[in-house]
């Protein structure tokens, strides 16, 4: 006598739909911002206090003017030693990187990873309609990739 199965026919497993993760989904939104007239000493103190290695420089309207980093601060330290003077109280504007590359908030994580690889930068300001909305770092991209590891890459 044949055995009857009371199970329905098995359906093929549903494919997971992976949404394209955008930079806006992983970026840091609450930024420590710096001003062009701020002293480089204040910046160094903020780096230590907030455990960051750089941040955007904005004007009073919030428009991106540059980026200041630990490497930029090294210029100040180096110059003070060269001239045998204590560290001067020059402004951020004197040391910041003014020609800043940015990433658009609607770029995919994969496009952002390519940009990081191509430029060797550690962080990028994120713009949406030419307005600063956040910052994305290499670490943010790595974390997003780990979160995608069990899904199909698109």
Helix and strand layout, with pairings?
Elements: H1 23-26, H2 40-50, E1 54-58, E2 64-69, H3 70-82, H4 92-95, E3 103-104, H5 109-119, E4 123-128, E5 131-137, H6 138-148
Parallel strand pairs: 3-4
Antiparallel strand pairs: 1-2, 4-5
Helix pairs in contact: 5-6
Structural account:
The protein has a three-stranded mixed beta sheet with strand order 3-4-5. Strands 1-2 form a two-stranded antiparallel sheet. By secondary structure, the chain is α+β, with helices and mostly antiparallel strands. It contains six helices and five strands. Helix content is 35%, strand content 17%. The chain has one domain: CBS-domain (Roll), CATH 3.10.580.10. The mean pLDDT is 85. Helix 5 packs across helix 6.
Which labels suit this protein?
three-stranded mixed beta sheet; 6 helices
Question: DSSP strand (E) fraction?
Answer: 15-25%
Structural class call reads alpha+beta
Strand order within the widest beta sheet: 3-4-5
Order of helices and strands: HHEEHHEHEEH
Which CATH architecture would you pick? Roll
- The average pLDDT is 85
Under CATH, the homologous superfamily reads CBS-domain
Portion in helices: 25-40%
- Unreliably modeled segments: none
Head-to-tail CA distance between termini: 51 Å
Annotated CATH topology: CBS-domain
- What is the β-strand count? 5
CATH class division: Alpha Beta
- Write down the domain tally: 1
The coarse silhouette is elongated
Q: Biggest β-sheet, characterized?
A: 3 strands, mixed
Q: What's the gyration radius in Å?
A: 23 Å
- Count of individual helical segments: 6
